[in-house]
UniProtKB/TrEMBL annotation:
Organism: Molorchus minor
Enzymatic reactions: L-leucine + 2-oxoglutarate = 4-methyl-2-oxopentanoate + L-glutamate; L-isoleucine + 2-oxoglutarate = (S)-3-methyl-2-oxopentanoate + L-glutamate; L-valine + 2-oxoglutarate = 3-methyl-2-oxobutanoate + L-glutamate
Protein name as catalogued: Branched-chain-amino-acid aminotransferase
Transmembrane segments: none
Keyword Amino-acid biosynthesis applies: yes
Entry similarity comment: Belongs to the class-IV pyridoxal-phosphate-dependent aminotransferase family.
PANTHER family associated with the record: BRANCHED-CHAIN-AMINO-ACID AMINOTRANSFERASE, SUBGROUP IIII AMINOTRANSFERASE
Length: 446
């Protein structure tokens, strides 16, 4: 194939690939039995991401030759193998007569009602990777009965919230941390990763389209549930070559029914997470097996399970929350302690925010350390256990008033102080989320 003077730089790898590929393609045509058009289509689909690179290279060359500037070239173009892009988002709005009616805030509960739209982004390695994001009316998804998510739980999810502020602006709390965690889970699940900033932009758009669903009134919010599932319709226990990243939204009220304190069952017979496992990832496979244990706890009149680990009965998490103890140490100093991120614990975004916020206050020491049930008993018996509380996006903070352990109940005076630390933390986090305090953790979406 002849090369023009404009394209004489053979060191330009994408361009060289393009030329070589075209040569290879044209020379392979006669040996292929299928129709040339079918062949060509398959070839283009298989190599589309490289062709895109080549097209970019050519366009840059042409612009260089014509003396045109292309300053934003590197910023706007990415490879579909690496990520999808917000700028490719296609939007299909729900017909006005099909919009759902919105429930009363008092009826919301958690995860019962869904908004009018959702986000869908397919990944097909055979088609070059990520496809264009689609914002579509809320709908059922159709899956092959052999889809890997249905058989081997090849999936992960996230949970984040959008809040309607006192200034009517909508803010999403620290979404970049959810994106980081989501990509980590994707690596563990063998699912494709992506540029978190691109998903944040798509999510912002989704929330904007459904903004009427962001409830008015503090204590309520719009919960965003991005999920990434393996959808290959093949039964092998291998990586899924196709995936679907989708996001649904639901307006939510208080996670726990009357928003009062909760009690926990701590039984070392049940283990949620172990070293070398995936307990520190937000994968559905971590949650299904907890349902039976949760029912056992409920049967004993306890709200949640306090998950223990190891022969020394280390505290790890409370239900689907990280756990904190506020206590007085041997020297009479106040300490806020939480178990360390040692692979057994989900790195909660509220957990991280509490640690960072309290470290800044400098009112008490903040420690990430192993806490055993013996430590809890010792603190209780010496009147140095002040508060225990759980943290998570769904509930923000949930005070704990009792732990049932080895047929005894440890009562905890969490809610009995005049201004407990858990309350101060909750108020400060909510002040940021609802825009009372301007803070980089909760920026208004454009
Ligand atoms: C097991 C587990 N631990 C902790 C958390 C809290 O994490 P975050 O603060 O990011 O909501 C969650 C919530 O999703 C969870 O599922």
């Amino acid at each position: 194939m002849a090369k023009t003077a404009l394209c004489s730089d053979d060191s330009f790898s994408s361009y060289s690939f393009f030329i070589e590929a075209l040569d290879l393609f044209s020379s392979s045509l006669p040996s292929i039995e299928k129709s040339p058009v079918e062949c060509a289509c398959k070839w283009v689909l298989r190599h589309q991401h490289k062709l895109k690179q080549a097209a970019r290279s050519c366009s840059l060359k042409v612009k260089e030759a014509l003396g045109l500037e292309d300053r934003h070239f590197d910023q706007v173009e990415t490879d579909s193998e690496v990520t999808f892009r917000y700028r490719d988002l296609e939007t299909q709005l729900t017909e006005p007569d099909r919009l759902r009616s919105k429930p009363e805030v008092s009826d919301l509960g958690f995860g019962k009602f869904f908004t009018d739209h959702m986000l869908k982004i397919y990944y097909h390695s055979q088609l070059g990777g990520w496809q264009r994001p689609m914002l579509v009316p809320f709908e059922n998804i159709s899956l092959h009965p052999a889809a890997k998510v249905l058989h081997y739980a090849i999936e992960l999810f996230e949970g984040l919230k959008a809040y309607r502020g006192v200034d009517e602006k909508i803010r999403i709390f620290r979404p970049e941390l959810n994106m980081r965690r989501m990509n980590k889970s994707a690596v563990t699940a063998g699912l494709p990763t992506f540029d978190g900033h691109e998903l944040i932009k798509c999510l912002n758009r989704l929330v904007q389209v459904d903004q009427e669903w962001v409830p008015h009134g503090e204590g309520s919010s719009l919960y965003l549930r991005p999920s990434l599932i393996g959808i290959d319709g093949t039964l092998g226990v291998v990586q899924s070559d196709s995936a679907l990243l989708y996001t649904i939204l639901c307006p939510v009220g208080n996670y726990f029914k009357n928003n009062s304190s909760i009690s926990l069952l701590a039984d070392p017979a049940f283990i949620r997470s172990w070293p070398g496992g995936c307990g520190d990832q937000k994968m559905g496979s971590n949650y299904g097996p907890t349902i039976r244990v949760q029912r056992i706890a409920n049967g004993k009149g306890r709200h949640q399970v306090l998950w223990l680990y190891g022969p020394d009965h280390q505290l790890t998490e409370a239900g689907t929350m990280n756990i904190f103890l506020f206590h007085i140490d041997e020297n009479g100093e106040k300490v806020l302690a939480t178990p360390p991120l040692n692979g057994l614990i989900l790195p909660g975004i509220i957990r991280q925010s509490i640690i960072e916020m309290c470290a800044e206050w400098k009112e008490f020491r903040v420690e990430e350390r192993v806490i055993t049930m013996n430590d809890v008993i010792k603190l209780k018996n010496t009147d140095r256990l002040l508060e225990v509380f759980g943290s998570g996006t769904a509930c923000i903070i949930s005070p704990v008033s009792a732990i049932e352990y080895q047929d005894a109940v440890i009562d905890i005076p969490t809610t009995e102080h005049s201004y407990p630390v858990y309350k101060k933390i909750k108020e400060n986090l909510e002040a940021i989320q609802y825009g009372h305090i301007k803070h980089p953790w909760a920026q208004p979406i454009e």
